[in-house]
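user: can you give me the structure for this one chain? tokens are fine.
assistant: on it. calling the predictor now.
[tool input]
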Amino acid sequence: MIEQQDQDFLRAFWERRVVVAYVLFALNILIFILMTFAGGWTNEATQLAFGVKSNPEINNGEIWRFVTPIFIHFGLMHLAFNSYALWILGPHVEKLYGPARFLFLYVMTGIAGVVASYFYHPTDVSAGASGAIFGLLGVLLVFSFKYRKSVPAFFTKALSRGILITIVINVVIGLLPQIDMSAHLGGLVAGGMLALVVPYQRPGEISGRGYKALESVLVLLVALSFLEVAVHYNGPGLSFQNLSAGLAGNRSVGIGGFIEAINAGQAAFEKSDEELSSDNVRNLQRSREDLAKAIQLMQHIPSLSGPADQLSSELLDLLQKQYAYIEEVERSGKTRSDFIGASPVSSRYKRNKQAIEEWVNREGSRYGIQNTN
């Protein structure tokens, strides 16, 4: 027979509403969708612009990167695993501790995971809710021992057994390459330590003003962190074109693909201008073929930032117009002279090339790009 205090605990546990865990779940998905529209989660420029943990940027004062990585994920599997774990573990912790304390535990263990990654993997970018997820596991593990005499025994036994199995499985998974175990362990340890000092919300207990104020501060912290991301955002713009590029997996070309496409486009344009200037229209077929290849590369160029996207789009337009003019010359057998330069877009091309060089001098170092001439 279940005692009265056990009945009170179970009633409070099952009847408490879950809000924060589901909001966090939705926020993770929202950020992932926005990243997808900005060129994809595999695009290095998108990752940096959205606020992944990157030690050089943090050392330059972008301290919000201790918070924003908790909500960023690298791929559908990464998002799916952490979202499933949050969906399962989050409601349990929120029902036990209440919304304010749950948010505190989630955010602080997430930050602890980022801090651990900052110190133990200083050269790697990282992100994900894994630190916070392991933090919740640490909280539940300590809870099952700390309150084993004041909550139903079958509840704590089932809880601790399930948690230990989950931790072991995730530690084994964490041994795989490219998994940041420091963030996992940092969150786990932080969760256990916080659970030692943060009491759970007992049946019938209402959160005091202090916890409600803390909840407001944490919401403000997360909001301000992403406001900093928005203010300092210099990544690819949100567009259906970048969505297509992200879904197509243009990570295969990455920043190297951007450089390759720009160089190929400029080389093809300049070579075709030389042929047009020589008035030897019989040699234009090779130039037209080179332009076609360059156009194909430019149509799939990785997205880096708003200004870079605008310049690459303009270069693509110039290549297409140059291609059309060469077709016209091949049909007529002669060039025109009603413009300045070898083609109608030669002057525009020179301005575009100069603008690209200025962009590289201004922002190229962020992507490891520099002028070679």
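assistant: here you go. The chain has two domains: 4-231, 253-367. The mean pLDDT is 83.
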